[in-house]
Amino acid sequence: MENKLTKNIFFSLGLKIFSSLKDHEELTLSLVGEETNYLRFNKAKVRQSLHLIQGNINLNFTSQEKTCSWSIPFQQDLEQTLEKMTTALGHLRTEAASLPKDPFLVKTQNNGPYEKDHEGTLPPDDELVHSILYPGKDLDLVGIYSGGRNIRANMNSKGQKQWFSTTNFLVDFSLYDAVQNAVKGYYGGQLWDQESYNQKISQAKEQLELMKRPRKKVSRGSYRTYFAPAAVSEILTMMSWGGVSAASFKKSESALGPLANNKKSLSPKFSLLEDFKLGLCPPFNEYGELSNDTIPLIENGQLKNLLTNSKTAKEYDLKSNGANQSEGLRSPLIKTGGLKKENILKTLGTGLYLSNLHYLNWSDMRGGRMTGMTRFACFWVEDGKIVAPIEDLRFDESLYNFWGEQLVGLTNFSETFPEPGTYSQRGVGGVNVPGMIVENFSFTL
Amino acid sequence: MNHEQLKKTLRSLPSKGADWIGLKKITSKIKFHSVKNGLPLSNKIYQDEGVQIEVLKNGQFAYSSTQDTSPNGIKLAYEKALFLAESSSKYPIFPFTRETRPQFKNQPSPHDFNQTTSGEIHDVLSLSCDSIKKEKGLIHSEGYAALKETETYHIGLGDEEFYSSKNTIDFSLKAIAQEGTEVQTRTWGNTLQAGPEYFQKELFKKEATRIAKEARELSFAEQCPSEKMDLLLMPDQMILQIHESIGHPLELDRILGDERNYAGQSFVKLSDFGNYQYGSKALNVTFDPTVEKEVASYKMDDTGHMATKEFIIKEGKLLRGLGSLESQLRSNVPGVACGRVSSWNRPPIDRMANLNLEPGEGNFEEMVSSMERGVIMATNKSWSIDDYRNKFQFGCEYAKLVENGRITKTLRNPNYRGISTPFWHSLKEVGSLPTREIFGTAYCGKGEPNQAIEVGHASSVCLFNGIEVFGGV
């Protein structure tokens, strides 16, 4: 049976439910859906496999300046789905009536159409297990394959219709040796190419060889440090959590507060923007507002914009830039610098080479200081040569130092990391970032 | 479909060589309410329903999940799961048997949930914000509540049948105070098995007033000093300490390597169970699914294993892991009933459920008076730990300095760091039952694909010696 989670069906369900609205009522429908195969593996063997079809339709209702929303499961039986939507609409009328007026209500309007289907090619179902695990058959390969179709869409009673779908895959893996040294790898995209995947596994295997040297215990202290793009992407995720949100700044809960208030500055080498041209996620938010192709956030060290959604804009008399409800980064990009790949170790000289970081958190959010751990392939480097892998270190450092005066340089290349998150559903979006070298980065444990 | 129709549909499926076929239907409704400065921020109701088909064939479990609960939808899901089990069995991690899916049975008796409107919960949260704003120097207030109703109906191809239902709540209040350039936050919240009856205006007003006063107090407070000293942790910080440096490292699936690509592994080895001295003699930790109101209390896990209270650590010695029947079979280590799913769309994995620190005999005042120089810390603010669960750094919202056995002043931006085993060996004394509180979180994350699930922790106040304490920027 064909999966009925399609554009035409979603839009026709919408038209039917809109016809039952009363004069003063408005409704926005948002769809989040996926059909995904998940293959979880450990030691290049299958731990668990899951096929999942799911979709949820959120009905955002407004009436007489009151608003609330109700989300229902999308069922393949369309009559049942419509019945659930109708029941939900009835509940919404009762719930909204019980609430006070929302003075910062985002009014329903037609923000214009959007339609994009990114087609892809996945490994065939009957070869999936073999395709993923055979290249790692003699290795300790651990991780997850997720692949399938991912959908985000919305429409509203003012006539707005927006649709984004992408068929893509991600193998998020790590490779371990017998003493639990490990390297991390990703292979993601829209067109599965077995040879490219095999090469990713081979490259990871080569990197793992470097880990065979005895580990060096590095004492706590400050070191010149290279952060590979994957490590920079971990740091960047912190910006979505008390960083770039305008609402967070307005309630004094933003690490960028000192920058916005001109109490601290960042290096002119550092520029951060939202770049929807990357095509990793839809440019529309939950309200259907379309963002510009790019939104500069920090340009040459100067704060240009915070992510501002319409509700925040109304509350604080700001201009919305189409941010989502949480005002988090969806498709961020850090601009590259001039450091060539072949010069990374030479420029680093003596210090630490970090491929990945783990479990970051603010140790002082308002001061911009964060802590976290090194993870996977991390090395001690002396005179431009890798000497030994290191034992894990904890860092605790302010972004005003590592993206400020202590930023030595950014690489002239960048890497794209598709969003690997799968809480509740498979995520969309991703990041594009270069590597960076920082002077005197603080390690505390 | 009702329960009888689901049973009929499951039992009409052709076995096609499957050793086990299970079906879980999970229905949930969560009402999320947020209030900012007394005004509505968002009110959302999230209704969900789906079915998970679990198949064991050729020693391999596989899953297919769908919201199509019609007979045809279930048949299609079964065929997908069967196909995945067959294709996966060419690369098996372990030859699983029916041993990991015991018989289970109870008498289904559907539950009536108490109903409430968004407006009623909004009013309690809005009133709390009003109480916060009354305090001088308070610049921001927030309230959040999630009320969840969950029903699980679990059947097997044989006679297995189990129904359970529960109400859970997750809530928080936040007060932000400013004095000059100093901005400080204080919160109150919890995650419990309870319903709308918990949202009593008087309770919320009282707690809102308390956190507002404490946020104001913090905005004038001194920076926490940086030195090695005694540390007295209140129960609302102990839960984080237990969770991160006892709960996660003892999950058997981490030790078996399943989580190495995401959440990480553990400093604990399989050979440590029954031998390893995890902490001082004062440390007693139980897996306890029987505590009333604690959020992860349940009768049976999601693999059909009946849940009982078990000692995980007794007098500091490590006895048992947090592992489901599958992990126990793979590791040959004793575990508990903790194979859990976050919902119908995820397979069961090892979770810590309720992991509690058993009370000691300490009296709070006497514990404070035994401190020559130390800090009392309350309410977690920041948390980070390495992938082996060794090196941690945690921050709290609120602290008091203790000098010569007396509480002398309030401190802002308190943090501490340590390494799990030495830290638990520095546990000097555990408070008695009157100092014990029950907390929980709705967002313990692990697994690939990711799963966020409710876990509970109960703890008394605990006193540690010689801990590295430090302040903010």
Description:
The complex is a heterodimer of chains A (445) and B (473). Chain A folds into two domains: 7-210, PmbA/TldD fold; 221-443, no CATH class. Chain A is built from ten helices and 18 strands. Chain A has helices at residues 7-18, 78-97, 128-133, 194-210, 229-237, 246-250, 257-260, 310-316, 344-348, 399-405; strands at 25-42, 45-63, 66-73, 114-118, 140-156, 161-176, 182-189, 221-227, 272-275, 294-299, 302-303, 332-334, 351-364, 369-382, 385-389, 394-398, 407-418, 430-443. In chain A, α1 (7-18) crosses α2 (78-97). The longest helix of chain A is centred in the N-terminal third of the chain and has 20 residues, at 78-97. The radius of gyration of chain A is 24 Å and the shape is globular. Chain B has 473 residues and is α+β, with helices and mostly antiparallel strands. Chain B folds into two domains: 3-220, PmbA/TldD fold (2-Layer Sandwich), CATH 3.30.2290; 223-470, no CATH class. A six-stranded antiparallel beta sheet of chain B has the order 3-2-1-4-5-6. Chain B is globular. The mean pLDDT of chain B is 96. Chains A and B meet through β1, β2, β3, α2 and α3 of A and β2, β3, α2, α3 and β15 of B. β2 (45-63) of chain A pairs parallel with β3 of chain B.
